[in-house]
Here is the input.
Amino acid sequence: MSVSKVLHGRGVNVRVSEGTAATIRKIALELDYRPNVLARNLRSRSTRTIGLVLETVPDLTGTVRYFAELLDGVTRMAFQNDYSLTLCNSLIGAGPISQMSDGRFDGLLWCRGNYGDDLVQAARSANLPVVIMHQPDRILNPDISCISWDNTGAAKLATEHLIDLGHRKIAFMVPPRSMKNPEACLRKASFFETAAKHGIEAGEADVLNWSDDASEFGDWWKENRQYTAIMSWNESCAIAVLGQARLHGVAVPEQLSVLGFDSSSQCDLTQPRLTCVHQPLSEMATRATEILIHRIESQDADPQHFVYPSSLDIRESTARPPQG
Amino acid sequence: MSVSKVLHGRGVNVRVSEGTAATIRKIALELDYRPNVLARNLRSRSTRTIGLVLETVPDLTGTVRYFAELLDGVTRMAFQNDYSLTLCNSLIGAGPISQMSDGRFDGLLWCRGNYGDDLVQAARSANLPVVIMHQPDRILNPDISCISWDNTGAAKLATEHLIDLGHRKIAFMVPPRSMKNPEACLRKASFFETAAKHGIEAGEADVLNWSDDASEFGDWWKENRQYTAIMSWNESCAIAVLGQARLHGVAVPEQLSVLGFDSSSQCDLTQPRLTCVHQPLSEMATRATEILIHRIESQDADPQHFVYPSSLDIRESTARPPQG
DNA sequence: CTGAAAGCGCTTACAG
DNA sequence: CTGAAAGCGCTTACAG
Here is the structure.
């Protein structure tokens, strides 16, 4: 039939004489024919679509930079390879990851902050390629590809930077809602450990469970002048601390050093510019997507594990402690 | 057959006795049965998926806030209604919008910055619901739903704010690559017009075609001390100007007032905090998505047009001109 | 109220 | 090398 011919004409099927092929293309154009991608996907069992599972989607504005850099890396690699990208959160499919293996995705990129064993289990049973980002070291899973950052090394770098400057009394800030975040825990633990290694006391008593806007800073500072540095578990909280310090007339870094994690370009906009350990997020996202696509396209690809190293971006918010 | 029964059991089809239904559910559970959404979509001619067409995807980091707020608004509404969201750029489907009506989307949310007549035409021929954001006033299209911002009113507000403060010599900054952006053009034109209305000269000679980082500022300032204010076509360029001013020892707002468009929370992080006209982007995105979903679900929904008004967020970067 | 069949629009083997 | 048929996994009318 002419219809089926048109269908053939669309494909890479060169088994038609050039004359009829031309006719077919002409008719297709006239009818404004567009192949239905759903039918094709159903038959060919492939969608060229990656699902991006994000815990933070409903709360984008709080983690803007993170999200932008992540998506920048993912979209670049995905689009380059002619994959499209669908954002997911738990609402879609009304369930956990197991519901996402309903044929709509060729693979899943998973950027939740919390990976319980149940979720890792779900990822395994999903029966389609999965790459996980930010998998904390402790539950590193050999079956699943993981891209993560060396949180422990990063906190070590940050702590030693402060200690080298002469700081002896350092506080660690993490908001209550992030206290159980595995990455926050790793950073905190490494901070404690590194401090101890250098003969400096640091423990739960030095942890500031402040709200995201660090509004507790003023009251705290009145009673805690012995501290000379605040290490914040992430960048945006560190920026909040910077704002509060300015509000309360505390000079950074002269009276107090402030340091954070991530080091996006936002850190160049603050006053003073924020010293941070750097997480190469966009690069990590690109790599994660690359690995996922590779797993999708070649069955026998082994799970891969990359732990990206950290580096220190020294800007203006850290200095020697007063009277140092 | 038992298989088809299972299928029925999955649906809202209550035409089976409770006993068999239970058996079906049990077997489905045992087999870890998951309905294939592709097959369902193919048959039911619906995907519950919205395509988000973005010009800026390949260049996310430059327009982070914009993107985050946009996506925040869109995902909120989409997920609430059990729609999923697919990011698109021109690479997907290897063509313009006409290629996107291949059955994968129920509707399209279109956030390109440039809407040529050809694209509007394509949107119309796409034969599926389309909602356009940032449709500039001049090509307002009655057939297609549009959500836009009152660029003209915004620039008027900004200009009059500066004039009220006493400024008489105002420059307008827009980078070369954004010069043809319809919104930039509207803002510029409204700036000229408003200035003229107040008896102040402003024309192309007052336009600064600087690069995004405003690195031309230093040289310019040496020769152009007569200017007392810079209005930047968007927020991120205004922030760049702020940085350059600090670098060259120019006091903002004492020596020079700086003002931008958009007014995201980023404007609170700068030093001094940046005065901006405010575009309620997240709200606009939510509304656009709502309208799109409504059009998808009811055939007879009329195209809708909303022009969101602007407001002025006065922060610290504008003040009376020197010797004023 | 239930079951068996047709069909969504493609692609992929399988005959001629 | 080409064409006609089978089938991807569902849903939806259509008979019993």
